[in-house]
Amino acid sequence: MSNGGGPSISSQNTDPFWALRGGGGRTWGVVTSVTVLAFKYPPIVTFYLSGGAPFGNESYWEAVKHFHAFLLNLNDSGGNMYYWLLPDLKDAQLGHVSAMIASGGFGNVSSKATIDRLMGPFVKELEAITGLPFNYTSTLSRKASTMYTATNDRPDEVGRHDA
């Protein structure tokens, strides 16, 4: 605080110790809130892919084989993905099917079209193998934090005392 009672801002003593040490003996600052932006927020393109084959159809396992072969290309292109293989799924809308679901993203990519060009042919190949359409969507988020908030039901509770 300055002599007038308001906050005092200075560019001297930028080291946190000296900034909090204050103006001399027995005077210390108290930190009540800190915001640190260590890195620029990167853009991210996320995608969702789902599809499958009729239950018991061998084309499902051919699609799974093709899917696993594509993972190297995905990784080499800077992507990551979670996926689920459900060879015996009983669904009210779909019936008895063999399904695959994938959700992933490409960090520090600012062009949705770039990712769609990579994923598009792969999706078409899966459709050709199974004979059924696959659902593919992609989304560009200018900040990874925006994507995280949009795709998670609850806020991150790490570090919260009341969680």
Keywords:
Alpha-Beta Plaits, FAD-bd_PCMH-like_sf, 27% strand, four-stranded antiparallel beta sheet, elongated, flavin adenine dinucleotide binding, 163 residues, alpha+beta
Characterise the protein shown here.
It contains four helices and four strands. The protein has 163 residues and is of the alpha+beta class. The chain has a domain of 108 residues: Alpha-Beta Plaits, CATH 3.30.70. The radius of gyration is 25 Å and the shape is elongated. α2 packs antiparallel against α3. A four-stranded antiparallel sheet has the order 2-3-1-4.
Helix-strand layout with pairing:
Elements (H helix, E strand, L loop, with lengths): L15 H6 L22 E11 L4 H18 L2 E13 L3 E13 L4 H19 L4 E7 L2 H8 L12
Helix content: 25-40%
Q: How would the global form be characterised?
A: elongated
What's the helix-strand series? HEHEEHEH
Biggest sheet, spatial arrangement of strands: 2-3-1-4
Ranges where pLDDT stays below 50 over 5 or more residues in a row are: none
Number of strands: 4
**The CATH topology of the domain at 44-151, please?**
Alpha-Beta Plaits
End-to-end separation: 35 Å
* Main CATH class of the domain at 44-151: Alpha Beta
Instruction: Quickly give the CATH architecture of the domain at 44-151.
Output: 2-Layer Sandwich
Overall average residue pLDDT:
84
Tell me the strand percentage band.
25-35%
InterPro entries: FAD-bd_PCMH-like_sf, FAD-bd_PCMH_sub2
GO molecular function, one term: flavin adenine dinucleotide binding
